[in-house]
Here is the input.
Amino acid sequence: MHSYRTHTCGQLRKSDAGQTVRLSGWVHRKRDHGNLLFIDLRDHYGLTQCVVNVDSTSFKVAESLRNESVIRIDGTVVERTADTLNAKMDTGEIEIMVSEIEILSTADTLPLQVNSDAEFPEDTRLRYRFLDLRKEKIHKNILLRSQVIASLRRRMIDQGFTEFQTPILTASSPEGARDFLVPSRLNPGTFYALPQAPQMFKQLLMVAGFDRYFQIAPCFRDEDARADRSPGEFYQLDFEMSFVTQEDVFAAIEPVLHGVFEEFNNSREVTPYPFPRISFDESMLKYGNDKPDLRNPIEICDVSEIFAGSDFAVFSNLVSQGAVVRAIPAPNAATQARSFFDKLNDWARGLGMPGLGYITFAEGAAKGPIAKFLDESRLEKLKSIAGLNDGDSVFFVCDKPKVAAKNAGLARTKIGQELGLIDENKFKFCWIVDFPMYEQDDDTGKIDFSHNPFSMPQGGMDALLNQDPLTIKAFQYDIVCNGIELSSGAIRNHLPEVMYKAFEIVGYTQDDVEKRFGGLLSAFKFGAPPHGGSAPGVDRIVMLLADEPNIREVIAFPMNQQAQDLMMGAPSIVEKERLKDLSIEVRLPLKTAKAG
Here is the structure.
């Protein structure tokens, strides 16, 4: 017999009754019924109920066991009686009558319970992550992550992509987020950087003649944590293609993403491909952001003309000064109690808005604090533009275009949630396309890149030479699912002369561009194919599939929000001798003395 097990704890069935077996695992739960002691034994594969009789020589050992101790048991598989079957367990038709127990490892007092759904502080969970990972839900999340990555890899290969690895130690990027820097011992005073993404390398692979590249790429950015972003590091399905248009990129990745979400959807509906294409301008108008959650049926509309010159002076005066009015329909909300509208107003004020004006349409009449300021023709036109029917309500925000879009988007989400309109049983995908190449700073008036400076402008050199920069669109695109951006991508600007001109518009000289991006430009001067790609975030994909609100729930060993690994004690202070080898001296910032 094997030293530790003949079967796993999720393997035995009724057909195994009568066999002598050996199992090893963790004591998940122990129940003392007087003459019988029950042990639920757990391993990676499942749970098996083990029974120790009071007459057994192993009873005293069983009594002494602590939860999460590791044991080996020998015993006989017994079929459970009809009244003791447990349909919730895969092994619920059998139990093991234990003849011998060996303690392989004794557990100390536990800082968190593994066999309970009780909540524990995040710091405790992260400090004892190895225990947290034993819990069924998060254990399944990490397994799901592995399965999703395997599926992505298989599907990319089936699509004709080849997997390559790109460097982890590279040069610091002058653009984007903060780099993580690595000092060079052999070249004192110089630093490598961990890659924020394999962007330059994957483009260079295209220049080198490799046609379809991908990798499950680790990326490193010194950014603050968010619910959908882990501080420090993350993984993405990075890919690039040569001789392609934007539609070719979409056609290659859509079957991969759709297939993975279909495979792990847990009975949720997945948008069939081709996914909808929504322009940036349309998305900002209808949804108030460039990451629309299409599960929410509410669509925002512009109703500035309704209020221009109206008796509602608050809005009409602002509109005359360049503000816009956005309407957010609230289907079937006219019958809601006054507290519903007051609650939304309080919510808006809590975010710094002046509030949410509203009108309700019921029994053929318009009511609400704004309705009396609009005549019948304006009200009818409002209903037509916003697609309102009797029984609906509509809320309004009025501000400068960017602020109005943002606030209307937040209100759309809040109203959708309050009315229960968001369908939780769907994965709704879309592409956001036609991003503006440039934007203007409201305060300085300076023109800058709006999204990705290395994207090909639509219209190429002709657009850069002859169009107002603020009207130029780029071949840039984001893929969004349920309001979460999975990735940005672009058809790249592979022509040096076009790149020089694109950067000249925002104030860079040719020398500036050469200094900052000389490696890539040099490669482009030796024949570069048109190419493009994207990089959907693996962590976010798994977060959606696992239905988790926080990305840390799908990462085996995440950092906390202060970018600290509490379990391993990172980041940590390094001895002076080691710093000396690297020609580094640490000078900490002075702490501000407390007043008094």
Summary: Residues 592-596 have pLDDT under 50 and may be disordered.
